[in-house]
């Protein structure tokens, strides 16, 4: 009994000391650099080490699979089925040609075999379609020691399991508490800081303080997620009176962009913690928050955004026109609302490196809290941000064409596939105009154009 | 981690499905992942809604007919075996299928006859084994939408049924359907190759 006492106090002392050390380290290596916007390069070093470990792990797995003669299932990034990119007309002519021995003239007619075309095309889409692929997380070709990306890899060796176990320990017991502490610090500083700044009289000092409070807190949040971001072409960063447009993969996009620039946010008013943050932020500088009921009214939204944009003293607006989170392998159709306003558009492309942690938020699968926990228990979030040169709407193009032009630029820069489909496809059915086009094409083949009709 | 495998053991009744459809292990695994991806709410089966969500299918003029083909006999759900059974019709015909033709075993799902039967089903709306003039008209209407007048469509339907109809009952039976397409390279036109 007596012998325990000295040990007891020893343990308490050790605990006290380690906590102090931890906090000092935290302050010195993470918070102070965040305030000033400098970096020690610790995260980059961390990233390099991780990459080496992943390469080893994958090699080990491939070797192990060969030994056991298992086929290591390589994820198919190019599609499940072999597709020929031929048009409706060509294919149906092909089908008809193979079916009849009579010479094929170009008189429009119908054949029973025409159905084969639609049949097969339909079946192909059931087996594999571009859009459903975009909405599930991108599949990795090497394993990053996270069981959540491990669809196909079987038990290979003890060493690998130990490594994975170690990974779990580090991620959940060391990194997670650290990150939560940082996130907490970041958010509370944001709320307190912006509230305090709100009391200052309007003027240059207030703006200066507001900008730096915002930047500091976003930088702390970036470190809370261990996000390693590489910014390209920073000279094209958005300026006042412009609209910053980016592709959307997860809510973290906001933190990533806002930690490098000072933006006015646009969004719906939320309740709870988000609501608190929103109300605090708007005290320091004008953000654009909409009530839920106002969001439906497109004219109101456009009016408020236009007002904001025309006031040159106000900050550039940050908008994600896809309207929903896409899995970062492609860019979906941009909603035209933001492109009708007539301001200069500053496109930004964000591309995440899925090797360290999948940042895609599948909102039908995970709630926000689950998602954030997943993010905080990944190794890191590595991404690249490209600031593209500003674009304006030309005289002869309408909002939709302009939106598509911007979208192509973003897709090209980020190495993402430029898809025509609407991001809303995830939840709604598709519009009928596309089907009509197919029907038009086919009708031409069986009845010809209006001019031909009068001839026969 | 490593002990959780996505081997074929994860697919229920993998062996019997393989025997019935003729798909290889690897193909079956891919189709299983596809099935899981389409089954967004993880119900374990697909409903019409799940298939309707496929954008590229929704713009196919015969999309609804194709979706219907997955739900024979008025069922509202299709499980994985049912799903694969339909897809098996589109498996390319390999030499091994024609060689080992055991007369006692049922015809493979991807035989020429079964492929033709699948196409026939798309026309035969009430599943009575015959394509009536009325059914032909309705399917044609699906394929052309509003682009063609009723009169033109009726002409086309009449002509087609007349050409194919041999026993004069005003409808096209499966045998007549097969006969009118006897020169067609059905095996190639109704096949989809799954990549390795």
From TrEMBL, chain A:
<dbReference type="GO" id="GO:0006631">
    <property type="term" value="P:fatty acid metabolic process"/>
</dbReference>
<dbReference type="GO" id="GO:0007595">
    <property type="term" value="P:lactation"/>
</dbReference>
<keyword id="KW-0808">Transferase</keyword>
<dbReference type="GO" id="GO:0006637">
    <property type="term" value="P:acyl-CoA metabolic process"/>
</dbReference>
<keyword id="KW-1208">Phospholipid metabolism</keyword>
<keyword id="KW-1133">Transmembrane helix</keyword>
<dbReference type="GO" id="GO:0004366">
    <property type="term" value="F:glycerol-3-phosphate O-acyltransferase activity"/>
</dbReference>
<dbReference type="InterPro" id="IPR045252">
    <property type="entry name" value="LPCAT1-like"/>
</dbReference>
<dbReference type="GO" id="GO:0040014">
    <property type="term" value="P:regulation of multicellular organism growth"/>
</dbReference>
<keyword id="KW-0594">Phospholipid biosynthesis</keyword>
<dbReference type="GO" id="GO:0016020">
    <property type="term" value="C:membrane"/>
</dbReference>
<feature type="transmembrane region" description="Helical">
    <location>
        <begin position="12"/>
        <end position="42"/>
    </location>
</feature>
<feature type="domain" description="Phospholipid/glycerol acyltransferase">
    <location>
        <begin position="242"/>
        <end position="353"/>
    </location>
</feature>
<comment type="similarity">
    <text>Belongs to the 1-acyl-sn-glycerol-3-phosphate acyltransferase family.</text>
</comment>
<keyword id="KW-0012">Acyltransferase</keyword>
<comment type="pathway">
    <text>Phospholipid metabolism.</text>
</comment>
<dbReference type="GO" id="GO:0002071">
    <property type="term" value="P:glandular epithelial cell maturation"/>
</dbReference>
<dbReference type="GO" id="GO:0046339">
    <property type="term" value="P:diacylglycerol metabolic process"/>
</dbReference>
<dbReference type="Pfam" id="PF01553">
    <property type="entry name" value="Acyltransferase"/>
</dbReference>
<dbReference type="GO" id="GO:0019432">
    <property type="term" value="P:triglyceride biosynthetic process"/>
</dbReference>
<dbReference type="GO" id="GO:0042171">
    <property type="term" value="F:lysophosphatidic acid acyltransferase activity"/>
</dbReference>
<dbReference type="GO" id="GO:0006656">
    <property type="term" value="P:phosphatidylcholine biosynthetic process"/>
</dbReference>
UniProtKB/TrEMBL annotation, chain B:
<keyword id="KW-0106">Calcium</keyword>
<keyword id="KW-0449">Lipoprotein</keyword>
<keyword id="KW-0813">Transport</keyword>
<dbReference type="GO" id="GO:0005509">
    <property type="term" value="F:calcium ion binding"/>
</dbReference>
<dbReference type="GO" id="GO:0070886">
    <property type="term" value="P:positive regulation of calcineurin-NFAT signaling cascade"/>
</dbReference>
<dbReference type="Pfam" id="PF13202">
    <property type="entry name" value="EF-hand_5"/>
</dbReference>
<keyword id="KW-0539">Nucleus</keyword>
<dbReference type="GO" id="GO:0008284">
    <property type="term" value="P:positive regulation of cell population proliferation"/>
</dbReference>
<comment type="similarity">
    <text>Belongs to the calcineurin regulatory subunit family. CHP subfamily.</text>
</comment>
<dbReference type="GO" id="GO:0042307">
    <property type="term" value="P:positive regulation of protein import into nucleus"/>
</dbReference>
<keyword id="KW-0472">Membrane</keyword>
<dbReference type="GO" id="GO:0005886">
    <property type="term" value="C:plasma membrane"/>
</dbReference>
<feature type="domain" description="EF-hand">
    <location>
        <begin position="152"/>
        <end position="187"/>
    </location>
</feature>
<keyword id="KW-0597">Phosphoprotein</keyword>
<dbReference type="GO" id="GO:0005829">
    <property type="term" value="C:cytosol"/>
</dbReference>
<dbReference type="GO" id="GO:0005654">
    <property type="term" value="C:nucleoplasm"/>
</dbReference>
<dbReference type="GO" id="GO:0071277">
    <property type="term" value="P:cellular response to calcium ion"/>
</dbReference>
<dbReference type="InterPro" id="IPR018247">
    <property type="entry name" value="EF_Hand_1_Ca_BS"/>
</dbReference>
<keyword id="KW-1003">Cell membrane</keyword>
<keyword id="KW-0963">Cytoplasm</keyword>
<keyword id="KW-0653">Protein transport</keyword>
<dbReference type="InterPro" id="IPR011992">
    <property type="entry name" value="EF-hand-dom_pair"/>
</dbReference>
């Amino acid at each position: 009994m007596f012998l325990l006492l000295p040990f007891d106090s020893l343990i308490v002392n050790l605990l006290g000391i380690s906590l102090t050390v931890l906090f000092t380290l935290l302050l010195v290596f993470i918070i102070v650099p965040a305030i000033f916007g400098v970096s020690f390069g610790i995260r980059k070093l961390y990233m390099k080490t991780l990459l080496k470990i992943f390469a080893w792990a994958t090699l080990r797995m491939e070797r192990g699979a060969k030994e056991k003669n298992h086929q290591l299932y390589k994820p198919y990034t190019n599609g499940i089925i072999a597709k020929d990119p031929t048009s409706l007309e060509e294919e149906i002519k092909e089908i008809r040609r193979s079916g009849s021995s009579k010479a094929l003239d170009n008189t429009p007619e119908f054949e029973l075999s025409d159905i084969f075309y639609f049949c097969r095309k339909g079946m192909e889409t059931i087996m594999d379609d571009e859009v459903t692929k975009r909405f599930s997380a991108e599949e990795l070709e090497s394993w990053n020691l996270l069981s959540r990306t491990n669809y196909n890899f079987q038990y290979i060796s003890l060493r690998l399991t130990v490594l994975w176990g170690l990974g779990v320990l580090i991620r959940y017991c060391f990194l997670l508490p650290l990150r939560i502490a940082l996130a907490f610090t970041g958010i509370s500083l944001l709320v307190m800081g912006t509230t305090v700044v709100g009391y200052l009289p309007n003027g240059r000092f207030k703006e200066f303080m507001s900008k730096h409070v915002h930047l500091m807190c976003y930088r702390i949040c970036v470190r809370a997620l261990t996000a390693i971001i590489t910014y390209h072409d920073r000279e094209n960063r958005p300026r006042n009176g412009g609209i910053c447009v980016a592709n959307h993969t997860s809510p973290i996009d906001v933190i990533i962009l806002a930690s490098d620039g000072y933006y006015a946010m646009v969004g719906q008013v939320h309740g709870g913690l988000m609501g608190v943050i929103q109300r605090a932020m708007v005290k320091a500088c004008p953000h654009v928050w909409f009530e839920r009921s106002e969001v439906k009214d497109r004219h109101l939204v456009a009016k408020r955004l236009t007002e904001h944009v025309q006031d040159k003293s106000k900050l550039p607006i940050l908008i994600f026109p896809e309207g929903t989170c896409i899995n970062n392998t492609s860019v979906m159709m941009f909603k035209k609302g933001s492109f009708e306003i007539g301001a200069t558009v500053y496109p930004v492309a964000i591309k995440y490196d899925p090797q360290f942690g999948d940042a895609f938020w599948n909102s039908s699968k995970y709630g926000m809290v689950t998602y954030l926990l997943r993010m905080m228990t990944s190794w890191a979030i590595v991404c690249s941000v490209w600031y593209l040169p500003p674009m304006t709407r030309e005289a002869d193009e309408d909002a939709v064409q302009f939106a598509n032009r911007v979208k192509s630029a973003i897709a090209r820069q980020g190495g993402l596939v430029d898809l025509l489909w609407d991001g809303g496809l995830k939840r709604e059915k598709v519009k009928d105009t596309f089907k009509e086009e197919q029907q038009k094409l086919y009708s031409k083949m069986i009845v010809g154009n209006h001019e031909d009709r009068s001839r026969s | 981690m490593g002990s959780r495998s996505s081997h074929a053991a994860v697919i229920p009744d993998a062996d019997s499905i393989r025997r019935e459809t003729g798909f290889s292990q690897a193909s079956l695994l891919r189709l299983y992942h596809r099935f899981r991806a389409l089954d967004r709410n993880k119900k374990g089966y697909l409903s019409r809604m799940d298939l309707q969500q496929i954008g590229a299918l929704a713009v196919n003029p015969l999309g609804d007919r194709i979706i219907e083909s997955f739900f024979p006999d008025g069922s509202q759900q299709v499980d994985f075996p049912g799903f694969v059974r339909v897809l098996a019709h589109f498996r390319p015909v390999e030499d091994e299928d024609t060689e080992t033709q055991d007369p006692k075993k049922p015809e493979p799902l991807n035989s020429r006859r079964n492929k033709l039967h699948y196409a026939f089903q798309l026309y035969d709306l009430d599943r009575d084994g015959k394509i009536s003039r009325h059914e032909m008209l309705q399917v044609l209407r699906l394929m052309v939408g509003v682009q063609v007048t009723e009169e033109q469509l009726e002409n086309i339907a009449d002509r087609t049924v007349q050409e194919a109809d041999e026993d004069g009952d005003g409808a096209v039976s499966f045998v007549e359907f097969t006969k009118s397409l006897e020169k067609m390279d059905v095996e190639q036109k109704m096949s989809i190759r799954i990549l390795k």
